[in-house]
Structures are given as structure tokens and as C-alpha cells.
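Materials and Methods. Structural model of NAD(P)H dehydrogenase (Quinone). The 184-residue sequence of NAD(P)H dehydrogenase (Quinone) from Pseudoalteromonas lipolytica was retrieved and submitted for structure prediction as follows.
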Amino acid sequence: MTTNIVVLYHSSHGSLEAMAHEICDAIEQQGANALLRTFVQRQPHDIVISKEDLINCDGLAFGTPTRFGMMASQAKSFWETTSDLWLKGQLIDKPACVFSSSSSMHGGNEATLLNLSLPLLHHGMMLLGVPYDVPELLGTETGGTPYGATHVAGSNNSNILSKDEIKICQSVGKRLALIASKLQ
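The predicted structure was written out as C-alpha cells:
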């Protein structure tokens, strides 16, 4: 049985999209299917998330840029439509992780990761963080937290993902795929 992981993101300037692709690559290296989804179609290749995607997935990686320590409004609007899934318990016991990006080192990434976690916890999903056996977590001078993968994009959003940020994104995708396959 194939494990299907939804990687759901909103990206304003490309950082979250780059992180999502790193997470997808790691998921697929574990033999699982990564289903890349967005909240709104900004590019011709974007596939907009559906509730059926969530119902049918075996795990979820969810990311948005930080908006004053909170998720992007596009994501919040979507989660507000999922009460029917909550009432039926359709996401209970699915593993999930979160990822985010901000303009500065202290731009609210950790608060955003906690904010992203709230709808997942309400839906009964099992939240996965970044364990300290990921060596880049201890040495990063850019993004990365135990709550999830992060990126520091810079004040003009021109910073590409650092080597540490890439490794942390990959560790998140790998762990999510492994846990989802064990739970199947």
C-alpha cells in the first residue's frame, strides 16, 4: 500500500515553495507519494487543496509564511471550512508537521509554527517536530526549530535556503513519511 503525504503550503515570494519541494523530495526518497498542494492557484502548475485530499492522505506537511506570528490568511480561510471533517473525525491520528518562513531571524517563525499547529491538533492529528538528533538543528545560524522547519528569507526575501535549512526540511519530510508508513 502506497503512503500518500499532502504537502500543503502558501508562498508569497517563493521561500515556502522551495521548502515544500525539499520536503516532497525527502518524502519521495522514502518511497511515499508527495502530493503538493496550495490554497490558491498563483502559478499554472499549482493544485489547490481539497477536503478530499486531506481525507485521503496518510500524513500532512503544512506551511505558510509568518504574518505577525500567525498563518497566512489564505490558510486560515481554508481551515475555517473544515468543521465537517472535524465533526466526523476524519483527520484523527494522521501524522502532521509544520514549516514557515519569515523576513528576519526574530520575525515570528516559532509563533507561526505554533499557530499552524492549532487546527491540526483540533483535528486530532499527531504533530511531529524536529528532534535534536538532526545535527543541523543545533548548528543552524539561519532557520530551523524543534517545532518545525523554518527559513529566514531576509528583508527583501532574496535569501535562498541555507544548507542547514535544506537538511532540516529534508529531515521533516523523511520523518513524516516514515511515521505515516508505520501507522498505515
